[in-house]
What does this fold into?
Amino acid sequence: MKRIVVSWAVLGAAALLVAFAPLPQSARAPTERLFRVEAGDFAYSPAVLHVNPGDEVTIQLVSTDVVHGLYVDGYDLRMSADPGQSATLTFTADQPGSFRLRCSVTCGALHPFMTGKLQVGSNFLLWRGVGLAFLALFGLLFFRQPSPNTDH
It folds into this structure.
């Protein structure tokens, strides 16, 4: 019985460590990042932009078919580009996290599905979730009670 209590305590401590340990901070110096994003056929290309916190980000939006826009959730920034034209938006990525990019100009039937993502810094929440899932799986396998033998 004492062994089981100690095992549960160790598993619980490991789960707390994975969930609440301080995250490593990036020591990279902020840099200038330029992205050329093509908007057309209800999609952005590239659809995901990865930057580091503190980077100065410049997005050049180029529309390939109709008028498209780009709105950065969480930063409250927007721009629009006419067909064959480009628009430029520059900002400092001072908020870590994952932010949705979405078309801010109604561009057709599939307009609501025209989205992308701005990832500022690493996605540590994903890795914490993966770590907790592995601990849960380990706990299930390690503490699984053997089924009682009904054969006599």
Observations:
- The chain has two domains: 2-20+128-142, 32-121.
- The beta strands are 32-40, 43-45, 48-51, 56-63, 68-72, 77-81, 86-92, 97-102, 115-120.
- The longest strand covers residues 32-40.
